[in-house]
Amino acid sequence: MTYRKRNEYKYTQALFNTGDVQICSYCGDPANTKDHVLPLIWADNQLEGQHIIVPACSDCNAMAGGKKFVGIYEKLRWLHKRLAKKYARVLCTPDWSEEELEGLDLVLRTYVENSLELRTRTLERLSWGKAVIKEVEKTCQK
Question: Cα(83)–Cα(107) distance, rounded to whole angstroms?
């Protein structure tokens, strides 16, 4: 592993391990699993005990599966494209005014409000990684 890659991973792991609460390395949601940056099925047996493991939410970890990536940033970018595709319908949800929402029955209003909330959360997840990439790239260039 090159010096830059090693420095990149050390900084990335320190950034996502914030006390008791761990943050997904890819979207910023609470992490409930550990992700091997290089999946174990691709790892060389000689790397025993040296695998790069970062916190991840189950959604991101499952999407990446056993796919092979050059590094964590390539994986992050790929996952963001997948998240955008997965939630494309929700991301296209139009804005509703309070007056429009009041005119809906309870079931439809609840559906629309939940869609708007999911759209907001998905946009946060998609924008989260971009700031992290810029911050890490600045640090690694020093």
Answer: 27
